[in-house]
Amino acid sequence: MAEVLVVVEATREFGVKKVTLEMLTLARELGTPSAVVLGGAGAAEALSAKLGEYGAEKIYAAESEEIDGHLVAPKATVLAELVNRVQPAAVLLASAQEGKEIAARLAVKLDNGILTDVVSLDADGTATQVAFAGSTIVKSKVTKGLPLVTVRPNSVTPTPAAATPAVEQLTVAVTDTDKLARVVERVAEQKGSRPELTEAGIVVSGGRGVGNADNFKLVEELADLLGGAVGASRAAVDSGYYPHQFQVGQTGKTVSPQLYVALGISGAIQHRAGMQTSKTIVAVNKDGEAPIFELADYGVVGDLFKIVPQAAEEIRKRK
Amino acid sequence: MNIVVLVKQVPDSGADRNLRADDNTVDRGSANNVINEMDEYAIEEALKIKEAHGGEVTILTMGPDRATESIRKALSMGPDSAVHVLDDALHGSCAVATSKVLAAALGQLGADLVICGAESTDGRVQVMPHMLAERLGVAALTGARKLTVDGGTLTVERQTEEGYEVVTASTPAVVSVWDTINEPRYPSFKGIMAAKKKPVRTLSLADLGVAPTEVGFEGATSAVVEHTRRPPRSGGAKITDEGEGGVKLVEFLATEKFV
């Protein structure tokens, strides 16, 4: 079976990201999964056990300071060379900022079609995408070149399938043009041990109704009790209640968790665009007419400052 | 500094949006078409740089006839002129082909700095800045929440999932911005009147030296096979809190195995 290249998403702090395991699971349906690690020195070593656990038969490792110290251009150059050499059946990347950027450059280098925000991919190359804020399901195909797709986090259930990957070091030969955008500083500000927003199985979000930044502790408390991530509506972010990187909506992150809890969020279209493909939606809002209730599988009309602490207490009791 | 801002006309994301039944492209005919929201932040950033460092701001749009409305709206915020890439053969173009056309136009405009929104609200594909940078052989600093210009050096602060990073490059470069970067100005009455007289140059594919077969449906590198409307979610149970709302909420979560 032909190789399927999976470009690994990982973070320094948490290692291999869940979306990578989803891509490996998907790749096994399409061919033989090979993981591609593009990073600094020693990057592959730390990730190989996990990649093998989810079925990577091979790991291509490109490790250099040139990759680590610049935005995506060197990664795309290395990947393009690899694609030309191994002629894979498909190339999968994560549908997040970096994955999309690498894919964008690869598409131009190879004059190849590209599909983003893919939630499933058939063996014949037909991809399913969710468009227009989850209101339209699109089936599409790359018609020039190989299937080059970015996979949306939380689209596939990752399942382990142990393999013992052989590691092949790639030669990194990049041009001066690849080194134009230099990273001069990286500042970590990830909060605590909460799961990453787009990958979390449970997301608890607060909106304007939360009232102020301090009250977001309530949202965080419920998220922690449920083992979820914290999100915020644009209204809450614009009001300065919570940082922008946690914004869910049309101009923020798109999430598709098993459970989405909306607290004090009215459900403006801006917000719905980022969360309405969630499997189960629960809402608490004092306005019984709020549009969020049109989406919610379970809605409680009332004061979130009474309901949320009571719910937190009840969860503690049951634990 | 010679700055070009990419502006895309999109169907209003606040209203119902569809793909056309006949050719699977975005239905613009029945939609309320507006400037892609993120592009207004790009225009604002360009105007701020011009105000601080001098230079010129040009709007670049690829789109059908009706995109003229968005071009005038963009000009009313303050840019000097606009270029409209307009050609019937462009209908149905994929992102790869679009980048070819825009890169050809940018090549003619000779910009020091290209600024665009991080993504459009219709496709949300987010690939254009890097596709253009790849074609033009310049740097792409994407997803900026802060941009500093110091002579020919650009420094961008960009959000990442773990925090943020500071990235730098020399001009010429492409920079894409999120809506956290500034607060776009509203066009003044004077600005709206002035926009009507600002020069808008039209470029065809022939002007750009791009063959019609390289774009549109014929030159597309991907195709929509079919599309369906997802059934709207229907609301489930809704209760009013009478003192036990929190407990009932957890009972629901327990039946769904979340607790």
Structural topology:
The complex is a heterodimer of chains A (319) and B (259).
Chain A: E1 3-7, E2 10-11, E3 15-16, H1 18-30, E4 32-39, H2 43-53, E5 58-63, H3 65-68, H4 73-86, E6 90-94, H5 97-110, E7 115-121, E8 127-131, E9 136-142, E10 148-151, E11 166-169, E12 182-188, E13 202-206, H6 216-226, E14 229-232, H7 234-238, E15 259-263, H8 269-272, E16 280-285, H9 292-295, E17 298-301, H10 304-318
Parallel strand pairs in A: 1-4, 1-6, 4-5, 5-11, 6-10, 7-10, 13-14, 13-15, 15-16, 16-17
Antiparallel strand pairs in A: 2-3, 7-8, 8-9
Helix pairs in contact in A: 4-5, 6-10
Chain B: E1 2-6, E2 9-11, E3 33-35, H1 37-53, E4 56-62, H2 67-76, E5 81-85, H3 95-109, E6 113-117, H4 128-136, E7 139-150, E8 153-159, E9 163-170, E10 173-177, H5 189-195, E11 200-203, H6 205-208, H7 216-219, E12 222-229, E13 237-240, H8 245-255
Parallel strand pairs in B: 1-4, 1-6, 4-5, 5-11, 6-10, 7-10
Antiparallel strand pairs in B: 2-3, 7-8, 8-9
Cofactor (chain A): FAD
InterPro entries (chain A): DHS-like_NAD/FAD-binding_dom, ETF_a/b_N, ETF_a/FixB, ETF_asu_C, ETF_asu_C_CS, Rossmann-like_a/b/a_fold
Family (chain A): Belongs to the ETF alpha-subunit/FixB family.
